[in-house]
Write a structure and sequence with these properties.
The protein has 156 residues and is mainly β. It contains no helices and 13 strands. The chain has a five-stranded mixed sheet with strand order 6-13-12-8-10, with no helix packed on it. Strands 5-7-11-9 form a four-stranded antiparallel sheet, with no helix packed on it.
């Protein structure tokens, strides 16, 4: 929708729109524009604590945490395809013995959720890992509810 007084374009439905600018006889090429619901907030969508038992057994060692999952909320519908940045700190700082699986930057699924897992690698065993999930608004302000903090403890 175009506000003829100001020239501002306003998305009224989620999806893809085509925007073409013109003034007099000068007409620009049409551009595709993604229209997304405005983000409202984020919260945890599951447990915020997990404990991994890393004692070697004849079968296997548990080296992957449960899902560290968040859910986003938007005005008007699901907040899909939004960037969530996960970061972690190990305690005590033992170097890079953990990674986030599948990666540290995720995009929300169609239901507004995103999740990672902590993967433990060989090396000095940390006591715990604190993982934070952070999101910002379009104007780079922290999204209400952000960051969400998770704790993964390791039990030898």
């Amino acid at each position: 929708m175009l506000d003829s007084a100001t020239g501002v374009s306003i998305g009224i439905a989620q999806g893809t729109a085509r925007l073409q600018v013109r003034t007099g006889n000068l007409i620009a090429n049409p551009q595709n524009v993604s229209v997304l619901w405005r983000l409202d907030s984020m919260a945890t969508a599951g447990p915020t604590r997990d404990t991994l038992d890393v004692t070697p057994t004849p079968t296997t060692v548990d080296s992957l945490s449960d899902l560290l999952q968040i859910k986003t909320f938007a005005f008007g519908g699901p907040a899909s395809n939004r960037r969530v940045i996960y970061s972690f700190t190990t305690y005590p700082d033992s170097g890079p013995v953990v990674t986030l699986f599948p990666r540290d930057t995720m995009y929300t699924f169609s239901d507004g959720t995103a999740a990672v897992q902590v993967r433990l690698h060989n090396g000095a065993l940390p006591d715990s890992v604190v993982v934070t999930a952070t999101m910002v608004t379009f104007h780079h302000a922290p999204l209400p509810g952000s960051p969400v903090t998770f704790v993964v403890e390791f039990r030898p």
